[in-house]
Amino acid sequence: MDFWKMNGAGNDFVVVNNMAGDIPPAEYSTIAKTLCERHLSIGADGMMFVEKAQGDADYRMAFYNSDGSMGEMCGNGARCICRYGYENGLAGEVQRVETTAGVVIGERIDSRLYRVRLNDPTLIKLDAPVNVDGKVYPCAYVELGDPGIPHAVVPISGLAAYPRQELRTLGRALRYHPDFPKGANVNFYEITGEDEVLECTYERGVEDFTYACGTGTGSLVTVLALQGKVSGRNVRVNMTGGQLVISIDRQGDTIENLYLTGPTNVVAKGEVTDEELVLNARYR
């Protein structure tokens, strides 16, 4: 089974082409959980299987988190898979990618820089405070696409110096908070300048911080733009893995287009030989 290892601003993925349908989808979860295990296998935040599109798109992206759970969509993963699609002749410089949350439009800007139009926000709550152990935290809540990718947006003063373990504990509590019945990706942020934000995301399915989160970044800027705290045009969001740029087209409180731009990196290409996987001979 051939694979690519890619990352988008440090959000890393294993990518496998299953356009021929040789890999049974019933095995996706086990394969993803095994190959994404750091130290024991390739290691990644998630895994993407490229499939034939079911509708009007160039191909379909089946996304799985590192714990083997299926994800609705992944913004940085979508940018990476657009590069994969372009360089493997599956699509042109502008492409349509099916995801569980809806079709994503991708665009090649240069050899490494890709932009995607994220799924539209389908639910926005700008004022959704949550109580954790008797302390109330200001919070907003956004879902992108349908079914919606859930994101909590939480301001943290002094985020860069905030003790990481304390933030991890809070992120885990919010990720499983009963106010979020689907669970939530938790995006902590601090505004650091004009149209510049520092972000740290605790991701469900990874169950820890990741170096970047594309849909989380889009959700964060959506909230801040509607609150009048950023312009919504070329907003720079800095994370551990680098910088992503978000631009929004809006009519009043309606978000018409939500764009995510950032770098991609092809880390490695190779063949999976993981002996912990019992792979069907057709794709071993």
How is the biggest beta sheet arranged? 18 strands, mixed
**Could you give the order of the helices and strands?**
EEHEEEHEEEEEEEEHEEEHEEEE
**Separation of the first and last Cα atoms:** 5 Å
Strand content: 35-45%
The secondary-structure class comes to: alpha+beta
Record field, number of beta strands: 20
Show unreliable segments: none
Tally the helices: 4
Mean pLDDT: 95
Mass-distribution shape:
globular
Percent range for helical residues? 10-25%
* Rg result: 18 Å
Can you tell me about this structure?
With 284 residues, the chain is α+β, with helices and mostly antiparallel strands. 16% of the residues lie in helices and 43% in strands. The strands form 2 sheets. It has an 18-stranded mixed beta sheet that branches. The chain has a two-stranded antiparallel sheet with strand order 10-11. The longest helix has 13 residues, at 75-87. It is globular and about 50 Å long.
